[in-house]
Amino acid sequence: MKKERLGFHLVLLGQIASGKDTQASLLEKKYNFSLVESGKYWRKLEKEDSPDGEWLRRTTRLGKPAPVVLMKKFLLENIEHRPKDKDLLFVGNPRLKPEAQLLKKILNEKKENFFALYITLPDKVIYSRSLRSDRYDDNKININRRIKWHKEQVSKSVNYFDSLGKLKKINGNQSIEKVHEDIEKALDYFKKLNNK
């Protein structure tokens, strides 16, 4: 079965442990996407014996996000080397406002459109899901730091995308199927809005 193309790129953001990877997997089954997954990239890079790997390990041990320089490098590589017959699905990135602005600038230069989704989750649910995960750095102190950082920093990207009219918030505190259904409704809305 041939996969559908949306005709625009999709940014899938969400709070910590909100199910971004799960939803990306469901979207990839239906749509002709090339995944741009920062989470998988960071987990792989953390294991590398390289200057970038060491830099990332030092940063994440402190409960901080990946350095902006590494994220910009990651975004540029993925945009420049994407398959031309696919739309991009950015999973969990760009999270910082300068990264979001860079993404918009690059895609505008290429005359390509995008839409962003943001999966929300209450802090209490973030804690319970995070403590069940297999991340080596998930403990209460680091989870608190990540939640605080997310509220202070990622909210700026979310507000930026919203100010462009390119964002829809999705309630992540429901079943996987219901979250996916809400995502599909948001995609239909954006397609209609842009006559796709």
Any chance you could write out the topology, listing elements then pairs?
Elements: E1 9-14, H1 20-30, E2 33-37, H2 38-47, H3 51-61, H4 68-80, E3 87-91, H5 97-109, E4 114-120, H6 123-131, H7 140-163, E5 167-171, H8 176-193
Parallel strand pairs: 1-3, 1-4, 2-3, 4-5
Structure report:
This protein has a single domain (9-193), classed as P-loop containing nucleotide triphosphate hydrolases (Rossmann fold). The protein is an alpha/beta fold and 196 residues long. The protein has a 5-stranded parallel sheet, with helices on both faces. It is built from 8 helices and 5 strands. Helix 5 (97-109) runs parallel beside helix 7 (140-163).
Strand share of the residues? Answer: 5-15%
Q: Please give the alpha-carbon distance between the first and last residues.
A: 21 Å
Radius of gyration: 16 Å
Please, how many domains?
A: 1
Q: Runs with pLDDT <50, length 5+?
A: none
Number of helices: 8
Report the CATH superfamily: P-loop containing nucleotide triphosphate hydrolases
Helix content: 55-70%
User: How many strands, which pairing sense, and closed or not: the largest β-sheet?
Assistant: 5 strands, parallel
| Secondary-structure class | alpha/beta
Walk across the major sheet and give the strand order: 2-3-1-4-5
Task: Pick out its properties.
single chain, 196 residues, Rossmann fold, 56% helix
